[in-house]
Design brief:
The complex is a heterodimer of chains A (about 450) and B (about 425). Chain A is globular. Chain A has about 450 residues and is mainly α. In chain A, helix 3 runs antiparallel to helix 17 and helix 12 packs antiparallel against helix 17. Chain A has a two-stranded antiparallel ribbon with strand order 1-2. Chain A has a two-stranded parallel sheet with strand order 3-4. Chain A is about 75% helix and about 5% strand. With about 425 residues, chain B is mainly α. Chain B has one domain. Chain B is about 75% helix and about 5% strand. In chain B, the strands form 2 sheets. In chain B, strands 1-2 form a two-stranded antiparallel ribbon. A two-stranded parallel ribbon of chain B has the order 3-4. In chain B, a hairpin with a 2-residue loop joins strand 1 and strand 2. Chains A and B meet through helix 5 and helix 6 of A and helix 14 and helix 15 of B.
Chain lengths: ~450, ~425
């Protein structure tokens, strides 16, 4: 039963090679190695588990195993890392050691996906934080410090929760823990820790500031992989540990936190003028959606939330790359300075269209299958109809801000003085956004493979 | 495999011989340093190969060669050897002979079971470190501050010892508080040790000395005197059975105050050496909190305290040794990351063990308190790291600092080795 271990080691070794090639700035080799490590990482999702006692005295083991959710995270990380690396080159958003930061994040994602004990999970969680802080540091030291401290606060809450769970003999995923007493304390700490990571309101303040301080390709990594990892982490800790006798109110509070975030984020995105802020607040809204689905303790809602995680991980980088291209071509990222761009930038307008409808959760676009699954699952779980109505309102608001952005940028008639419209960017700049747009459509049209992948769940 | 008595005699001989050789090699800086380096390595080997036991005289236990103490000493000696190799240019024939004596003091302090032996170790450490501080120009003030603090600490420990002995308590590892004079004795002893380790409110001397003492002196002080004293401090607190709830709470508040003063003061420092000095103040607080938790719960985990003390003091020593020279400045990054408790460095093992231990013995509030101060520590460490020049970080390593970093990494990946050493 060492299959998972073999795939894990092989995938990590290739990812490590990608780190080395990125240090020497070999883009092609790095991208190939990232894709290879992703394929190897996905293959281990049915392959048993392996444990090694790392700190025997404290009963803290290191365990490896993977399921469908792990494979989905690895796949997402591979797609976004490779896309961001190429986009950074084509959009001229490179910095020395940027490749190192991106490949390191991908490396830690594989580790996170395979971690099957709390200790190993935390180790890769912290390494991911370090690598993502380094990525932010390459662009803005002050924001990097704020980002690190905010995220580390969440990590330390998680560490205390891990300490409590380990003391309750639940250090390995698949264990049971009583959701009362100290178990309830651990549960509450986990809820807050992942709310921070997902940028759930009111723990969201780091998110718009960080996203808008980065160029498109780097923001794609933070929004597409790092934030999505929050949803994966929450899933792993809530569903791979059996919470016995957990008071209903605890999950209920968590649900309302997510639903509030979905509404607040969508409203803020509706009022935002800069593309970066629209993307950021939209992330807060989607984060809330995922959070509400995951804390509902319905397996179907969790699958829906993981689907949103994957779709969000594709669409948000797409939006950031598109915003970067628009800013480069138009010289501003304020949607008030834009309009009628569809006339001169038809291909960009098409990509914008896919982005807008995906963000809106429209049918046959990326986020739709996940969002509808979460809502159906919550209705089946006989949740308070008001709570479900809140999520539906959030969906309407998402449609509103997505369409507002698309109409403002590409269609709104110019009411100020007539001006020269920006030209279509070179095709090579659009290559990666177009690829991501196609993936977004495929994810929306063909949800079955991902749902069947998510059907393979660890106990 | 030597017994405890033979081990003590052999290591005393090594110390005397090596310090004599260092003294005789007046004009040969490298050879003189080599001699003290050999002393450290030989003693480390001796400690690994000895077979453990207790040295007693007339039925009184004096020194105990237990596995946790030995493991801690070996780690500290290996670290000290690497620090000396890193800083060999700054060591002359006056400093070199004092290094084996500082090491000897550290060993005596760590292994001491009897309070009188503890006093011997503390005084020997104070004298040899003061000598090292005084050997460098511009460090006189630090030397005087350190010397007077140590003398005062020593006096308090002597007073405490006298009260303990008058109550027929001869062992530091088993104190049952039964009479008021024994309580006072314990308070004197704790205060003396608190002063020595820089626990708040007895801390103001420590950041000054950390900022102004010679790098060789302060790194050796951290590894060979501070770490052993912290260990004894922990042992004393955790072994004080029936300490009484009031005294335990007073100590817990003192620990929290020390963590708060240390971490928040470090946050506002502009000098990295003062910042690390305040970090030592908070480390004393964490150690005391661990001791109080053990005393209250009756569960003593020497593994956890050895992880904590060695990881933080090893990281502090490397950070201080790296900060001065552009050839070694790069190693300050892993050192501080380890100090901050980030994986995969050794500091992470310590942080995880401390949090898990607090949760396991039923004090999650202690885990939350410690986590909060870990966050403050992370803030000042990251603020400093982000101010460093990236190019100098990548190039600033020499062979010894690199080995030190690898050790921090190895201990993080495989902490079980510590139990094998002991």
């Amino acid at each position: 039963m060492l299959d998972a271990l073999i795939w894990f080691v092989a995938s990590m070794a290739v990812a490590l090679l990608a780190i080395v090639t990125s240090i020497y700035n070999k883009l092609r080799a790095t991208v190939i190695l990232i894709i290879l490590s992703t394929l190897l990482g996905i293959l281990g999702y049915k392959g048993g588990s392996y444990c090694y006692y790392w700190l025997k005295q404290l009963g803290l083991p290191m365990c490896i195993a993977a399921d469908g959710a792990s494979a989905l995270l690895v796949l997402l990380s591979g797609i976004v890392s490779a896309a961001a690396l190429v986009a950074a080159r084509t959009l001229k958003e490179e910095r020395e050691q940027l490749g190192l930061a991106i490949t390191s994040i991908h490396f830690t994602m594989i580790g996170l996906a395979y971690a099957y004990s709390l200790t190993l999970f935390y180790i890769f969680w912290e390494l991911m934080l370090l690598a993502s802080s380094f990525l932010v540091y390459l662009w803005d030291k002050r924001i990097a410090l704020q980002f690190f401290i905010y995220m580390h606060a969440g990590s330390l809450l998680l560490l205390v929760a891990i300490g409590i769970l380990a003391s309750e003999k639940a250090a390995i995923f698949g264990s049971s823990v009583l959701g009362t007493g100290y178990g309830l304390v651990a549960f509450s700490l986990i809820l807050v820790a992942f709310a921070i990571k997902l940028g759930v309101f009111p723990f969201h303040t780091w998110l718009p500031r960080t996203y808008t301080s980065l160029p498109g390709s780097s923001a794609a990594i933070i929004s597409g992989i790092v934030t999505s990892a929050g949803a994966y982490g929450l899933y792993r800790l809530l569903y791979s540990i059996k919470w016995l006798n957990l008071p209903q109110s605890a999950a209920f509070i968590g649900f309302w936190l997510g639903a509030t975030s979905a509404i607040v984020g969508a409203l803020a995105a509706l009022l935002a003028r800069r593309l970066g802020f629209i993307a950021s607040y939209s992330s807060i809204s989607h984060g809330g959606f995922m959070y509400a689905g995951l804390v509902s303790f319905s397996r179907l809602a969790a699958a829906g939330a993981l689907y949103i995680m994957f779709a969000h991980g594709i669409v948000k980088p797409l939006f950031f790359l598109l915003a970067s291209i628009l800013t480069k071509q138009a010289g501003s990222d304020n949607i008030r300075d834009m309009g009628l761009y569809a006339k001169t930038m038809p291909l960009t307008a098409f990509i914008g269209f896919v982005t807008a409808l995906s963000l809106a959760g429209a049918p046959v676009f990326a986020l739709f299958p996940g969002e509808i699954t979460v809502i159906i699952a919550l209705a089946e779980a006989a949740l308070n109809p008001i709570a479900i109505a809140i999520l539906v309102i959030a969906l309407f608001l998402a449609a509103a801000y997505a369409l507002r952005y698309w109409l403002r940028v590409f269609w709104r008639p110019v009411v100020i003085a007539p001006r020269r419209l920006p030209s279509e960017p070179p095709r090579r700049l659009l290559l990666i956004p177009l690829t991501l747009a196609i993936i977004a459509i495929v994810v929306g049209v063909l949800p079955a493979p991902i749902f069947s992948l998510l059907g393979v769940m660890l106990p | 495999m030597l017994g405890p008595e033979a081990s003590l005699i052999t290591l005393t001989l090594i110390v005397v011989l090596c310090s004599l050789i260092s003294m005789l090699l007046r004009d040969k800086k490298l050879t003189s340093t080599m001699s003290s380096l050999i002393a450290l390595i030989l003693v480390a080997v001796l400690l690994v190969t000895q077979r453990g036991g207790v040295i007693t005289v007339n039925g009184l236990p004096l020194l105990g060669f237990d596995k946790h103490s030995i493991a801690m000493l070996v780690l500290l000696l290996v670290s000290s050897s690497l620090i000396i190799a890193m800083l060999w240019r700054e060591i002359d024939h006056v400093v070199a002979p004092l290094i084996p004596w500082t090491m000897y003091a550290g060993i005596i302090i760590t292994l001491s079971i009897n309070p009188a032996i503890l006093i011997l170790g503390l005084e020997l450490g104070a004298l040899s470190l003061t000598g090292i501080y005084l050997s460098y120009k511009g460090s006189e003030e630090a030397a005087v501050k350190y010397f007077f603090t140590s003398i005062l600490a020593g006096a308090l420990v002597i007073a405490g010892t006298a009260l303990l002995v008058s109550n027929h308590v001869y062992s530091l590892t088993d104190i049952s508080v039964t009479t008021p004079s024994l309580v006072f004795g314990l308070i004197f002893l704790i205060t003396g040790l608190a002063l020595e380790v820089g626990l708040a409110p007895f801390h103001p001397w420590l950041p000054d000395v950390a900022a102004n003492a010679p790098i060789v002196g302060i790194t050796l002080a951290i590894l060979l005197v501070d770490a052993p004293t912290l260990y004894v401090f922990f042992r004393l607190i955790s072994a004080a059975k029936a300490m009484g709830l009031i005294l335990a709470w007073v100590l817990a508040i003192l620990a929290a105050a020390s963590m708060a003063i240390g971490e928040f003061s470090a946050l506002v420092q502009l000098s990295v050496r003062r910042m690390l000095g305040f970090s030592m103040v908070s480390d004393a607080g964490y150690t005391l909190l661990l001791g109080v938790a053990c005393a209250l719960s009756g569960i003593v985990s020497f593994n956890v305290v050895v992880y904590f003390i060695t990881s933080s003091n090893m990281a502090l020593a490397l950070a201080l040794a790296s900060v001065k020279d552009k050839d070694t400045i790069g190693s300050i990054v892993p050192a501080l990351l380890s100090l901050m408790g980030l994986p995969p460095f050794y500091g992470f093992t310590a942080k995880l063990s401390v949090i898990t231990f607090f949760a396991r013995i039923g004090y999650p509030w202690m885990a939350v308190t410690a986590s909060f101060f870990f966050l403050v520590a992370a803030a000042y460490v990251m603020r400093y790291l982000m101010s460093l020049n990236r190019d100098s970080i990548l190039k600033g390593y020499n062979i010894f600092s690199l080995i030190y970093v690898i050790i921090l990494l190895f201990l993080g990946l495989y902490p079980g080795i510590i139990n094998l050493i002991g």
